[in-house]
Amino acid sequence: MARRKLLLLLKPLDACSHSPSGGVSRLSNTQILRHLGSRYDVHRDAISFCENILQKKFVDWEAMLRDNLCHPIQNVDMVVTVGGDGTLLHASHFVDDSIPILGVNSDPTNVDEVEEYSNEFDATRSTGYLCAATINNFEQVLDDILEGRVVPSKLSRLSIRVNKELLPTYALNDILVAHPFPAEVSRFSFRTNKGSQPCSPLVNCRSSGLRVSTAAGSTAAMLSAGGFQMPILSHDLQYMVREPISPGAASNLMHGLINPDQTLDVLWSCSEGFIYIDGCHVRYPIKHGDAVQISTVAPVLRVYLPPHLSGQEVYSFSFKRDSVEKRWKLSNM
């Protein structure tokens, strides 16, 4: 059997809030300092732990800081990310559908710790929603992968075209189309289409922007804004207009689903704007008159998921889909 080639992609120690240096040193609360110092140490120890495990396995591997990753990942059999969902998302922007990703949550949230300090500060650590491993089970999960006992799940990503030109980055979580200044009104029109046929009325909006999420991203900002969680293997997209101003008769169309065979077509009507992909670090400028098309026509991402995610039920989502489609039909009557 040929040796597998792995890339170990690391969240930097000095680029995260875990580090007790820099601005953190100005904090006077010793409990906060102790907590942040602990996060730094836990992440550092997790990196060392994963490296020691890989040393024992029949694999070739190299480590890289995620901030040094700027070209497509090639010539490896798998990417192992050590950090949280942010590091996994960063890796997803540099892989196609041929290279699977395993996420290791290096610093999971401790519920008891959050409760203990709830009146002092937010002691939440890393969520690691998409991460299948922690240091507690990393070796077992890795062995299962190397011996073929588990296979990666295929997660949908979304693609964006601006004036028919495909943007080079696919979103795994979500995108936000908005004015660069948060207090400024975002003006745009949108509708869903299937080919050249409209599936919904044209909606003219003034709002704080437009968010579109994949199923994997439906538990993030979309859920916080009042959306709903989708089964992680769904191929649909979910959209929501942020803080619409006087939507009137179109209020039922401020939130909905986009089927895999549909596109969401947006006409931008502000002098400037940005498309933010999976957070604030990746963004592309748009201007007045630009046509933005959003769809699931994108390479899937192969990810080793936690067992409770790969076996999600779909019944509640089917109910949500039915209610959304009913709203669309009522708006066209």
From TrEMBL:
CC terms in the record's Gene Ontology section: cytoplasm
Enzyme class: transferase
EC number: 2.7.1.86
InterPro entries (alphabetical): ATP-NAD_kinase_N, ATP-NAD_kinase_PpnK-typ_C, NAD/diacylglycerol_kinase_sf, NADK
This protein's UniProt keywords: ATP-binding, Cytoplasm, Kinase, NAD, NADP, Nucleotide-binding, Transferase
Subcellular location: Cytoplasm
GO annotation, biological process: NAD+ metabolic process; NADP+ biosynthetic process
One example GO MF annotation: ATP binding
Protein family: Belongs to the NAD kinase family.
Subunit and interaction comment: Homodimer.
PANTHER family in the cross-refs: NAD KINASE, NADH KINASE
Record protein name field: NADH kinase
